[in-house]
Amino acid sequence: MGDGQTFFDAIVVGAGPSGSTAAYELTKAGMSVLILDKEKFPRYKPCGGGLSLKIERILSVNIKDIIESTVTGTYFTYKQQDGLYLYSDRPIAYMVMRDKLDSLLVSEAVKAGASFKDGTKVMGIKESGDSYEVMAEEGVFNCRYVIGADGVNGVVRRYIRPGEIRTMAASIEAEIPVGKDLIDRHNNYVHIDFGSIPYGYAWVFPKNGVLSAGIAGFRGVVKQPKKYFDQFLKAHPAISEVSNYKYKGYPIPLFRTQQPLTKGGILLAGDAGNIVDPFFGEGIYYAIRSAQL
Q1: Taking Cα atoms as reference points, which of 244, 1, 252, 228 lies closest to residue 103?
Q2: In terms of DSSP H, where are the helices of the chain?
Q3: Of 202, 185, 161, which Cα lies nearest the Cα of 78?
């Protein structure tokens, strides 16, 4: 989507929750905005997809129709033993698939007036006087400001912090198809397990037709996270017999203070700025809130 314009007040690189939210807010404030994303939408994104209840305080869009499961409890274990259930009389989290959430948020930004070009990979950024050139495979776009919302390995972050060495968690996640009876039994709680991987945790989240399972541990400390992931699945009573699933790995940036989030007219949001909960690795809420700020 677009109108042929090549100069914008702001160009947002990345159409995930932080990028779409930044574009929405800027457009509503009267700025001309272009969103660029290297993937064609809708696209699958490996992610636990857990939205903590505080998301309701900041969302400007109704997510009711894309909620896969409403969670009211948590089951904590250590190496899948000594389980402890904690339940609430109200929802504590919502489960979503990222392809649906991200498509909804970017569509709201477009409705507000932003232009959107998916399947457009940004190759680099060049400062040009008091503006910037954003160089993509499809051509060069010009703007006054750049929002880097292109994730942990994004080109905008590398432009602001060249050569930066960061601490990250290595994560593996899979959407595992299971029967309706299993989904029904797990529909109202999440499972969090400590001890299945050193310096990290594993999880099982309920969604519509699948259980979203994953594991995360400090990268550099944890070797071969796939080995721990396989061990966790084989020992889990709900999914030990399931074999028809595909997994994907992805890094989770760990928040550190005293880190620059801006350089001139360039700003980072969400994972690109390491703005992630430092304990559980929750990122969606912080992506959206950092973009709003």
Answers
A1: 1
A2: 17-28, 98-112, 155-160, 180-186, 225-235, 284-292
A3: 202
Q: In degrees rounded to 5, what are phi and psi of residue 291?
A: -65, -40
* Tokens 């339940």 belong to residue: 87
Give the 3-state secondary structure of residue 208: coil
Residue 264 tokens read as 């001139």
Q: Can you give the pTM of this predicted structure?
A: 0.90
DSSP reduced 3-state for 35: strand
DSSP line for 89-153: SS--EEE--HHHHHHHHHHHHHHHT-EEE-S--EEEEEEETTEEEEEETTEEEEEEEEEE-S-TT
**pLDDT of 220 above 80:** no
Joined together, the tokens standing for residue 70 give: 């409403």
Least confident of 3-7, 95-99, 131-135, 161-165: 3-7
Average pLDDT, the chain: 89
